[in-house]
Design goal:
Number of helices: 4
Order of helices and strands: HHEEHEEEEH
Structural class: alpha+beta
Low-confidence stretches: none
Strand order of the largest sheet: 2-1-6-5-4-3
Helix content: 25-40%
Number of strands: 6
Distance between the termini: 37 Å
Strand content: 35-45%
């Protein structure tokens, strides 16, 4: 691994810690100003720090105790790929579902591209089907 790959992986870990702590403003500073988010369900990439902050705030509002456990991470060139397990308590509205108070967990595969010392782009593939099944009114949790 190269020094830049090590630096980029450390930056991702810092970003995850900031998200967990709820410091979304500081986390957004780790992104380039023209940050690009490639997310499931969006016909085109989303652009900008503010879009990222808004989307992340929705998750933190719904799951205020969100924890991001890195299962595996590797970096090559200007990219880092991460396998994460996210878990938390459903205490706020998420999508169309009111808070259930349930403990939930789901996995995500995430790829980040760096430009210098900032995150320039992300591709995320969270297992939203699993998450939605856990918070569905007909579910008994996980």
């Amino acid at each position: 691994m190269t020094a830049s790959a090590d630096r980029n992986m450390a930056l991702i870990r810092t970003a995850y810690q900031l998200v967990e702590s709820g410091d979304l403003e500081e986390a957004a500073q780790l992104l380039t100003e023209d940050f690009i988010a490639n997310v499931p369900g969006s016909p085109a990439p989303l652009r900008g720090r503010e879009i990222w902050r808004q989307g992340t705030k929705v998750m933190k509002d719904a799951f205020p105790d969100l924890k991001i456990d890195v299962q595996d991470m590797f970096g090559v060139g200007d990219k880092v790929t991460v396998l994460v397990h996210m878990h938390g308590t459903h205490l706020g509205v998420f999508q169309q579902f009111e808070a259930t108070g349930r403990q939930v967990g789901y996995r995500s595969v995430e790829v980040y591209r760096f430009d210098g010392h900032r995150i320039a782009e992300e591709w995320v593939a969270p297992d939203l089907l699993s998450l939605m099944q856990q918070i569905s009114p007909t579910s008994t949790g996980h």
